[in-house]
């Protein structure tokens, strides 16, 4: 456990993670990835064909080494905004508090987009700030890796030659 104490204002700021990355691809191409629940469950490489199934309105993503993760779609506004409730991991179920993961796709002047992500609600995961700050720490670093993986995946698809019938 960390002996460092935080002020209420610092804890409020730490309740969310915000990251962004520029991607050289059209908004629609980025949307195809972002609208897929749990696309960021990977080992640093986005899967073209993920193990994704639905149990009612819950998307279940199964990764061979990371396990099973559950998501509920909150909102999809093609091709600009997608929000998912990260409702379960191998260690949680639907009744446990969760974080909200939101994506924005903003077109850039001159082409391409900026993909922004905000994950919020970490303080709802535990009463003890040290517990939820520890969980947040992994996601804080993870979003850098996942956005880079998403960028690589989308840019490879965007650069691929189009098949002619």
Automatic annotation (TrEMBL):
Question: Domain named Activator of Hsp90 ATPase homologue 1/2-like C-terminal: which ranges?
Answer: 24-127
Q: Where is the signal peptide?
A: none
InterPro entries, per database record: ASHA1/2-like_C (IPR013538), START-like_dom_sf (IPR023393)
Q: Name the protein family.
A: Belongs to the AHA1 family.
Protein's UniProt name? ATPase
Q: Which organism is it from?
A: Streptomyces thermolilacinus SPC6
Q: What is the lineage of its organism?
A: Bacteria, Bacillati, Actinomycetota, Actinomycetes, Kitasatosporales
